[in-house]
Write a sequence for this structure.
C-alpha cells in the first residue's frame, strides 16, 4: 500500500537538548505504526512536528502527500490528534464541541450531524452529546476527544499516550477504536511507553530513545528479539545496545 | 472562521456565572449602590447626629454666661459637668469637653481676650461632629459680642468687610454642565473593559493551555490570525458590555440620586448634581466621537489582555499578570483631573491611553479639536495593530504555546 506518512531525517533541539535526532520512518495506509519509548524519548515532539505545531530544525515529512513545512494547513486538514493531556471546553456539551470543530474543519451542519450519528454508533456517545463537558467522567471525555479527532474522517490519526490515566473500560474503548480505524486509505500512528499496547495494536513499530530511532520492524520481529521474554526484554536489549553504540546521548 | 472562534468564546463566557456576575451584574448594581448608598448612609448619620441631643462635658460651667449656655444648648447639646476634660474624653465619658477657666463675662466686659478650650479626639468623626456644634455656638456668640461692641462704638458691622469678592464663571455651557462626567466616562470605559474583558481573554488563552484545548485548536486547519482575531472580538464584546453596564449603572444611580436624594438637600443638591455632570448635554457628532473612542479604547485594552494572558501557563498566573495592568488606566485617568494644572501640549495626544482619555474629556466638555481626532484615533489604531500583531506572533511561537 502507498505510504501516507514519510518522515526523512527529522531533527529538533530545545536549547542544548536534542529532542529528535535524525529520525526517519514511513507509515503505509492500513497500518497501525507504533512509536515506542520511555517518557522524554522524543515521541511527543515528533508528533507535534508532524501535526505542524512545532517546526523541525531540519529534515522533512509529508502526510498524505502534503509537506508539513510548505503546506501546513492542508496537513492539519488531513490529520486527527488524540493525546492524554487533551481537554474539552467545560461549558459546552459534547455535541456543541463536535459542531465547533466540525465547522473549523469546513464541514456543513448536516455533515457534522451525520458523522455524529456514525460516531455515536461506534463509540456509544449517549449522554456525552447533551451534557456539558464539566460533568464528564474520564471515559466520557475520551470518547469526545476521539470523536473530535476523527470527526472529519482524517486519513491519518496520531494517538499520543492516549490511554494515560484512563480506567480499564475507557482504555478498552480507545484500544478497540485504534484497532478498527485503519483501512485502505487510513493509517494510525500510536505513540506510547506501554509495551503491551504496542504488542496488542501495532503492525510495525519504531523504538525511540533519546530522540533516536533505535530499532524499527514488525512488532512480531521486535518481540522475537526478546528471545521469548516479550517486547519489554527486546526494548531493554535494543536500547542497551544503542547506549553502547552512542556512548550515552544526553537526555 | 473568525466568527466561529468568537462565537464559541462568547457562548462559553455567557455560561460562566462568575463572568456574568463580574461583567454585567456588578457594574450595573455597584454604580447606583456607590452613588446612592454612601451619601444616603453618611447623610443619615450626619442628620441623626445633628438632631440628637448630645451630652458635651464642661469644666467651669459657672464661668459661662447664661446667654452663651443657651446658644450652646440650642445646638442640641446637653452640658454635663466633668472634673477633668482630657480624662473624660479619653475614657469615653463624653466625646467633647468645653473648658473655660476664667469667668467669661468679666473678661469680655473688660475687653480682654478670653480662652474657650475644646477637648476632642482629632480624627474621631463623632467627636469632631459634636465639637462642631460647640464651634457653631461659639461663632454665634462671638458675632453677638462683636456686634454689641461695634454698636457701642457707633460703627456699622460692614466696616469689618472692606472688600467684597465676586466670581464670574467664564466656562462654556458644555464645560459647566459636564462636571465629573468628563473624566468618569473614559475612566469607567477603561477600568470596566479591563475587568469585563479579562475573564474571556484569560479563558481563551491561558485557560485553553491549562485545559489542554489550545493544542487541539491549533491542530485544526484554522489560520492563527483567525484564532487571534476571533478571541480578540469576544474579549472586546465582554469588555465593552461591562463598560456599558457601568455607564448604565452610573446613569441609573444619577437618576435615582436626582429624583430621591438631591431634592432633600435643596440648593446643595443642585450644586452636587452640577458637580456630577447632571446637566450634561452633548450633540450627535460628539456622541459619535465618544462611541468610536470608547470602541478604540476597549479594543486596545482587549488586545493588551490577550497578549499578556497568552504568556501565562495557567488561569491564576494570567490573573497575576493582569492585575497590575489596571494602573495603566487608573494613573492616566487620575492625571486627567489635573491636566489643566500640568499644562499639557498637543504632544500629550500621542501618549497611548492618556490621549483617548483626554479626547473623551474634551468631547464631554465640548471643546475638542477635530484635528486631534486623527492623531488620537490613528495612534490608538496603530497600537492595537501592533499588539494584535504581537499576539499573533505569540500564537506562532513554540515557547509560548507549549510554555509549561
Amino acid at each position: 500500500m502507498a505510504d501516507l506518512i514519510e518522515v526523512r531525517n527529522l531533527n529538533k533541539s530545545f536549547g542544548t537538548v536534542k529532542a529528535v535526532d535524525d529520525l526517519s520512518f514511513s507509515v503505509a495506509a492500513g497500518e497501525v505504526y507504533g512509536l515506542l519509548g520511555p517518557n522524554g524519548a522524543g515521541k511527543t515532539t515528533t508528533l507535534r512536528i508532524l501535526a505542524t505545531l512545532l517546526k523541525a530544525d531540519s529534515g522533512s515529512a509529508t502526510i498524505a502527500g502534503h509537506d508539513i513545512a510548505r503546506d501546513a494547513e492542508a496537513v492539519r486538514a488531513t490529520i486527527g490528534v488524540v493525546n492524554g493531556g487533551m481537554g474539552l471546553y467545560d461549558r459546552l456539551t459534547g455535541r456543541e464541541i463536535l459542531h465547533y470543530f466540525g465547522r473549523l474543519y469546513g464541514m456543513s451542519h448536516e455533515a457534522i450531524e451525520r458523522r455524529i450519528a456514525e460516531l455515536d454508533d461506534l463509540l456509544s456517545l449517549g449522554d456525552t452529546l447533551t451534557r456539558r463537558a464539566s460533568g464528564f467522567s474520564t471515559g466520557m471525555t475520551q470518547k469526545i476527544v476521539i470523536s473530535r479527532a476523527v470527526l472529519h474522517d482524517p486519513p491519518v490519526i496520531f494517538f499520543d499516550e492516549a490511554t494515560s490515566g484512563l480506567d480499564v473500560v475507557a482504555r478498552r474503548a480507545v484500544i478497540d477504536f485504534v484497532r478498527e480505524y485503519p483501512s485502505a486509505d487510513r493509517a494510525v500512528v500510536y505513540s506510547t511507553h506501554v509495551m503491551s499496547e504496542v504488542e496488542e495494536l501495532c503492525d510495525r513499530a519504531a523504538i525511540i530513545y533519546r530522540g533516536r530511532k533505535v530499532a524499527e520492524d514488525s512488532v512480531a520481529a521486535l518481540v522475537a528479539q526478546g528471545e521469548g521474554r516479550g517486547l519489554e526484554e527486546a526494548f531493554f536489549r535494543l536500547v542497551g545496545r544503542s547506549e553502547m553504540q552512542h556512548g550515552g546521548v544526553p537526555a | 472562521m473568525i466568527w466561529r472562534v468568537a462565537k464559541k468564546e462568547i457562548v462559553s463566557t455567557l455560561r460562566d456565572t462568575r463572568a456574568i456576575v463580574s461583567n454585567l451584574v456588578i457594574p450595573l448594581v455597584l454604580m447606583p449602590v456607590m452613588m446612592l448608598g454612601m451619601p444616603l448612609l453618611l447623610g443619615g448619620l450626619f442628620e441623626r447626629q445633628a438632631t440628637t441631643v448630645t451630652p458635651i462635658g464642661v469644666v467651669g460651667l459657672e464661668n459661662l454666661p447664661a446667654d452663651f449656655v443657651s446658644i450652646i444648648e440650642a445646638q442640641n447639646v446637653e452640658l454635663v459637668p466633668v472634673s477633668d476634660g482630657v480624662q473624660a474624653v479619653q475614657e469615653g465619658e463624653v466625646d467633647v469637653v468645653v473648658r473655660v477657666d476664667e469667668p467669661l463675662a468679666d473678661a469680655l466686659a473688660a475687653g480682654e481676650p478670653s480662652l474657650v478650650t475644646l477637648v476632642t479626639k482629632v480624627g474621631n468623626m463623632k467627636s469632631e461632629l459634636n465639637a462642631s456644634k460647640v464651634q457653631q455656638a461659639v461663632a454665634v456668640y462671638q458675632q453677638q459680642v462683636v456686634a454689641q461692641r461695634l454698636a457701642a462704638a457707633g460703627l456699622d458691622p460692614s466696616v469689618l468687610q472692606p472688600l467684597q469678592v465676586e466670581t464670574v464663571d467664564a466656562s462654556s455651557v458644555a464645560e459647566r454642565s459636564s462636571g465629573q462626567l468628563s473624566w468618569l466616562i473614559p475612566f469607567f470605559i477603561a477600568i470596566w473593559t479591563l475587568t469585563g474583558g479579562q475573564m474571556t481573554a484569560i479563558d481563551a488563552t491561558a485557560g485553553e493551555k491549562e485545559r489542554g484545548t489550545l493544542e487541539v485548536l491549533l491542530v485544526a486547519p484554522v489560520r492563527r490570525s483567525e484564532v487571534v482575531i476571533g478571541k480578540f472580538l469576544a474579549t472586546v464584546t465582554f469588555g465593552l458590555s461591562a463598560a456599558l453596564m457601568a455607564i448604565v449603572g452610573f446613569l441609573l444611580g444619577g437618576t435615582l440620586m436626582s429624583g430621591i436624594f438631591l431634592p432633600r438637600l435643596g440648593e446643595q443638591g443642585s450644586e452636587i448634581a452640577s458637580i456630577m455632570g447632571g446637566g450634561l448635554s452633548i450633540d450627535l457628532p460628539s456622541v459619535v466621537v465618544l462611541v468610536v473612542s470608547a470602541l478604540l479604547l476597549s479594543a486596545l485594552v482587549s488586545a493588551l489582555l490577550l497578549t499578556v494572558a497568552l504568556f501565562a501557563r495557567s488561569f491564576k498566573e494570567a490573573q497575576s499578570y493582569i492585575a497590575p495592568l489596571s494602573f495603566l488606566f487608573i494613573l492616566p485617568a487620575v492625571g486627567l483631573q489635573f491636566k489643566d494644572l500640568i499644562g499639557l501640549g498637543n504632544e500629550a495626544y500621542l501618549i497611548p491611553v492618556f490621549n483617548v482619555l483626554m479626547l473623551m474629556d474634551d468631547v464631554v466638555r465640548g471643546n475638542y479639536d477635530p484635528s486631534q481626532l486623527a492623531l488620537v484615533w490613528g495612534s490608538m489604531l496603530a497600537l492595537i495593530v501592533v499588539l494584535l500583531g504581537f499576539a499573533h506572533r505569540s500564537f506562532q511561537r513554540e515557547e509560548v504555546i507549549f510554555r509549561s
About this structure: The mean pLDDT of chain B is 82. DSSP finds 19 helices and four strands in chain B.
